[in-house]
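Good morning C.,

I know you're traveling, so I'll keep this short. The sequence:
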Amino acid sequence: MKLTIDDVRSRFIEHFDGTTGSVYASPGRINLIGEHTDYNDGFVFPGAVQQGMIAEIKVNGTRNVRAYSIDLKDYVEFSLDDEKGPKASWARYIFGVCREMMALGVPVEGFNTAFAGDVPLGAGMSSSAALESVYAFALNNMFGENKIDKMTLAKVGQATEHKYLGCNCGIMDQFASVHGKAGSLMRLDCRSGEFEYFPFDPKGYKLVLVNSCVKHELVGSPYNDRRRSCENVAAVINKHHPEVKSLRDADYAMLDEVKNEVSAEDFMRAKYVIGEKERVLAVCDALEKGDYETVGQKMYETHYGLSKEYEVSCPELDFLNDIAKEEGVTGSRIMGGGFGGCTINLVSDELYDNFVKVVKSKFKEKFGKEPVIIDVVIGDGSRKLC
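The tokens, ready to paste straight into the viewer:
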């Protein structure tokens, strides 16, 4: 994390009463594979990154939260007892977390806070989950005697997205932000909540994000429409196979059986999700054998599915994926919800320098701006810094 305690503390002192509080951090995340599977009860394979959010917090003796966004240079004050909450979307994340923690019985009091992040916005690295997680973790520590377990803290962040921002996201982003561990990826079963750490130290390879700098906005129709398609197909399959509660339980044969009962679009969406379920498990097996060629092949398959079946790509991301293929990169795919953001690339050490050079020049030539290269280091989850 390039961001430091002092970056936040200096602004906290400046904007409030000159005293200091407690400082907390939560990371953004990458996801090696398993995209749009979390809300289908499937498997995902994320890891926390070193970039994230840092927040300083101090109790102020009132029922009001006074919050300053350092990055946006914006100040909002709201009452913990106001059911409507603030209008500014960034402040609604904090408000939602406060309300959800209070609903769990945590006696949240008014506080002053300033926060900043170094997760690139719109890059699909879940800056919003980092923001939710840093406040959920902090409020649990400051007011809840750490009695709320980590998975419940992740669900607080998810509920905040659903109820206060209108985005029906799955649990992966918040899970990864809270549970992250340096040097490890995590395979999460989104139905049971069971997870396993997988050591991730790919000798001879680097994980590299290439940020197209195309901003995506997941709140609203595109994301929720995809989710609805999946639920539609699962409901139709369920009529023939009552054991199928979500696409997690379905296979290609079941999908083919209902092809004439669902729209062509819904069929395609479901086909992608069922395939992605299999790819995540194949990647886990490959990682345990140190077989990074298979990991890379599955990443390319995922990109194809996200682009052509789930239709959440864009020309810039497809272009980045094509360059990766042309340059012999082991694996590459869209990362995150889509509609912009990054590709995640598994690049052999000997190809790294040339890949970075070529991708920058070719992308600039076509789209008039350079993509941003982000080297991935897997880091720790939510924690108190001081």
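Safe travels,
E.
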